[in-house]
Design a protein that fits this description.
CATH class of the largest domain: Mainly Beta
Low-confidence stretches: 1-17
Radius of gyration: 20 Å
Helix content: under 10%
CATH architecture of the largest domain: Sandwich
CATH superfamily of the largest domain: Galactose-binding domain-like
Order of helices and strands: EHEEEHEEEEEEEHEEEE
Structural class: mainly beta
Oligomer: single chain
Strand content: over 45%
Distance between the termini: 42 Å
Number of helices: 3
Length: 309
């Protein structure tokens, strides 16, 4: 067995720009914290595409030695992974619970790689020194950052990547007409549209409107063929959150050459694919022409937005 020591680094959104997360067929853990008042802390939470749910270990002490194992769909060529370290329900809960500091990743053949994570509530992307062939990854806690209140250590989400291109068109940058200010639940930046996590989202920040006329824009870095958009409309934190916030019902796509196309968007929290006349373009701007009003909040949110060739 060999061991490699790496410093973790936050690499923006580079991995999903060229790859999609690999399928995780099964998860297991050394221990799980018992449900508390209807809140689940089971290990399957690390692969549910939500940052607000988390796995908690239940060992005596701070959780040193505890582990989560991800099984992949056969042997894969893995280049790295992405981790939502700690309990991402709110920034307050993130501070109150332990976070992982030293992380050991064991491959199916017993090879181990060690990473040091930063103590920031930011998604961290970590890469192996070179691609590894493995059918599983075991993430073992070797060191922790202490929480201010509780002694349990948690991980909210894990994604694993190979080097194969995604079926989506790679995005180099996201932008928006306005953005809702960050709060205790996190931020609402346009980058959230491409993170493959349903309960992080872009929300517009125009206090005087309902989202009509607001827009998001994706820049591909070079001219690319696009023929459909895949969207998770509204606030996908959960059904209640979706009902309470505004969601889109119609929009206009604007391409680099100035041409446009109208699209109809279902006011549903389920993912939907909307086909349009194929274009070759560097950017696509989606302007929201009509919205469905939420029951409580007058802010338009979009959880995920991707374009396909």
């Amino acid at each position: 067995m060999t061991s490699a020591i790496l410093l973790a680094s936050f690499l923006s959104t580079s991995l999903p720009a060229v790859a999609a997360p690999l399928k995780i067929t099964d998860v297991s853990a050394s221990s799980e914290l018992h449900d508390d008042s209807g809140v689940s802390y089971v290990v399957k939470n690390v692969k549910d595409h939500k940052q607000s749910t988390a796995w908690f270990e239940s060992e005596v002490g701070s959780g040193l030695g505890s582990w989560v194992k991800l099984d992949l769909d056969g042997t894969q060529n893995v280049v790295g992974f992405r981790i939502w370290n700690g309990y991402w329900l709110t920034s307050d809960m993130w501070q109150r619970n332990n976070r992982v500091k030293e992380l050991e990743v064991e491959l199916a053949d017993g090879t181990k790689h060690s990473f040091t994570l930063t103590d920031d509530m930011k998604v961290e992307e970590l890469r192996f020194p070179s691609p590894v062939q493995t059918s599983s990854l075991k993430f073992r806690i070797k060191g922790i950052y202490k929480g201010s209140t509780f002694a349990d250590t948690s991980i909210s989400e894990l994604q694993v990547f190979d080097s194969a291109p995604s079926s989506d068109v790679a995005v180099t940058s996201f932008s928006a007409s306005s953005t809702y200010p960050a709060d205790g639940d996190g931020d609402y930046e346009a980058d959230n549209l491409g993170d493959d996590v349903l309960d992080s989202m872009w929300c517009e920040g125009n206090a005087d409107g309902d989202g009509t006329g607001e827009w998001v824009q994706l820049d591909f870095g070079s001219s690319q063929r696009v023929s459909s958009l895949v969207i998770n409309n509204g606030n996908d934190f959960g059904f209640k959150a979706f009902i309470n916030a505004n969601s889109a019902t119609a929009g206009t796509l604007t391409f680099s050459d100035g041409s446009t196309q109208k699209v109809t968007i279902k006011p549903s929290m389920m993912g939907q694919t909307i086909a349009f006349l194929p274009r070759t373009t560097r950017t696509v701007r989606l302007t929201f022409d009509q919205v469905r009003k939420g029951k409580e909040f007058n802010d338009l949110c979009i959880s995920e937005l991707h374009f396909q060739p």
